[in-house]
Amino acid sequence: MEIDYGPLAGLIGTWQGNRGLDVSPEPNDGTEINPYYETITFEVAGDVDNAETQKLVVIRYHQVVQRKSNDEVFHDQVGHWMWDAKAGVVMQSLAIPRGVCLVAGGKAETVKDEIGSIVLSVAAKLGDPDWGIVESPFMRDNASTLEYRHEMIISPDRLSYDQTTVLDIYGRRFDHTDESVLTRA
Ligand code: HEM
User: Fold this and answer.
1) How many domains does the chain have?
2) 183 inside domain
3) How far is the CA of 30 from the centre of ligand 1 (A)?
């Protein structure tokens, strides 16, 4: 039987965007602003059963982000989006190559617009017993990720997201943000 990917179905495919904006921390109360372009590829990864009770449908993704100023890849992220239809829960697990992983949880909502856009919103917090963050000892001590909040809007030909990663770095709390709009490649 064909797998129903529910609210994740609209993600499948390759998306490109050149309107990204990253806000990152710099030492001495500094802030770095990086306009970026990116490619995100979402692929079907089937379904899984957990403890013979929970059924998840899974989409695997890879996000490659390049600085407009020098074309360098400055963020590379892999992860999965998962949908638990019975519980009505959306999950995003991700890994970034700085020594940080997380499992964020949340929900999917259909927007009352003519095209039936879907909004996925998930969040994770360091030390949260439900949706947590895991980091290397170096990152824990020097650049800790305290919170992650992500909202993604899926429309037939447009994908956008807005995310805030709250960091504890350079002796302060910093809202590291990323937002982007993509279209199907
Ligand atoms: C589009 C997505 C993202 C982009 C473009 C991006 C970009 C950046 C940049 C440019 C820095 C500053 C690096 C430096 O000055 O050396 C940074 C720092 C950091 N980012 Fe991201 N980031 C993204 C998403 C994330 C996510 C999802 C997480 C974690 C869940 C994360 C965690 C961190 C951490 C912990 C640092 C501190 C390391 C440091 O500044 O030395 N980032 N990011």
Assistant:
1) 1
2) no
3) 14
pTM of the model: 0.97
For ligand 1, the distance from its centroid to the CA atom of residue 160, given in whole angstroms, is: 19
Residue 50 lies inside a defined structural domain of this protein: yes
Cα–Cα distance for residue pair 59/6, rounded to 1 Å:
11
The CATH number assigned to the domain holding 92 equals: 2.40.128.20
What is the atom index within ligand 1 of the atom nearest the CA of 167? 35
- C-alpha distance from residue 68 to each of 36, 37, 41, 79 (Å): 5, 7, 20, 24
pLDDT at 116: 86
Index of the ligand 1 atom closest to the CA of residue 169: 37
Q: Give 45-84 pLDDT, tens digit per residue.
A: 999 999 999 999 999 999 999 999 999 999 999 999 999 9
pLDDT tens column, 107-135: 999 998 888 899 999 999 999 999 999 99
- Would residue 184 count as lying in a domain? no
Q: Which of 133, 12, 148, 146 is nearest to 80 (CA)?
A: 12
Domain membership of residue 185 (yes or no) is no
